[in-house]
Amino acid sequence: MREKDKNFQAIYKAAESIVDVIRSNASQGEINCQLPPQTVNALKESGMLSLWKPESLGGLQCDPEAYALVAELIASADTSAAWTMHGVAASWLVLRSASDQLVDEIIASADIPVIADTYNKPMQGEKVDGGYRLNGDTPFASGSKIADWIAHTTLVDGRMFLTFHPAGTLEIKEDWDTLGIRGSASNTVVAKDIFVPEHRAIDIMGDVTPSPRFNGALYRMPTAVVPVGIAAVSLGTIRTALDCLNDIAENRIPFGGSATLKHRTLAQLHYGRALSTYRASRSYIHECLRDNFKTAEQNLQFSTQSKADMVLAATFVLQNCADAVKEVAKAAGTASIHKGGGIERALRDVEVTSHHAFGSESRFASVAQAYWGLDIDFPLIEIE
User: Fold this and answer.
1) Residues 227-269: pLDDT tens digits?
2) E strand or H helix that includes residue 139
3) Between vectors from CA 78 to CA 217 and to CA 184, what angle results, nearest 5°?
4) What is the CA radius of gyration of the chain?
5) In the 8-state DSSP scheme, what is residue 17?
6) 200 backbone dihedrals φ, ψ, rounded to 5°
7) What are the structural domains, with CATH classification, of the chain?
8) Which end of the chain has less neighbouring CB within 10 Å, N or C?
């Protein structure tokens, strides 16, 4: 059980120790559309950017369920901080298949390297002597402004690679002016005739053979675990919205009333719906992570359906958290509309997360395709 897991308790305590710092700087991240230095330093020093980094390389290598609990806590303070944190974690998972040369370069680049990544539309690559020549642009490189490395998808002769670039190699188009998750700096990155050495490209559609440095059940998890980590961010967002509503219900007297909001039946109804959705989503995601991590621990093969199950859990959470925050807003009434308020920001953040390709509404159809033996329109379900 988690309360008896001393390693997890130490990680969670470290996360708790930075919550106030992250929360107090969240508004600055909103204004500047990137995480402030105080938040970045807190994430680094507490180990939050090393959660899926291998123990052999000085990381914490925590299991996916432990990760989800920590990500939810960080997201409850600042969705953008948890979103950026997850991009780094996902990159370490993919690096299990990287060359030792690339991993060594990343480790040497900073005491605690920040890796920004995007799996959006691939750039076009051409095979040349010693590597690839790249041109194009791709959006949503979360963490781009603070990154030591930026990774993105690249298509070369019909094969999909994740290519890695040191900071300063790619042009960053500062176009991240969005409804929510503003602090994540998920800008578009641009390559203009950029050469990438062959060792900095990972064939993400190929078989996964983890390097001996990436030893353990975590690195036997399929890439489909990545969306589940994103879902944990939405859980943290609704958790904050519910906390804000509790305070409003206790202290606010609605217009024309004589009692506080908590005495209104309609507010009670919306609160109950939101709370039950949060709890059901949380239970679902953790059960999914526990079950699939057992498969990895036993070194068993993941079926297409089992990978689809992780995508399904993530999609359910992302979509239902968005609905649940709307229930919170209905309960709070006009107290939810003020710019900078906890519920107002939660509404914006979950709306953005609900449109992420890894958990958008269309992923329900992708899961059905996996179950019904049809061609699957979402490659993440099929890759290792």
Assistant:
1) 998 999 999 999 999 999 999 999 988 877 778 999 999 999 9
2) strand 131-141
3) 80
4) 21
5) H
6) -100, 15
7) 2-97 (1.10.540.10), 114-203 (2.40.110.10), 221-381 (1.20.140.10)
8) N
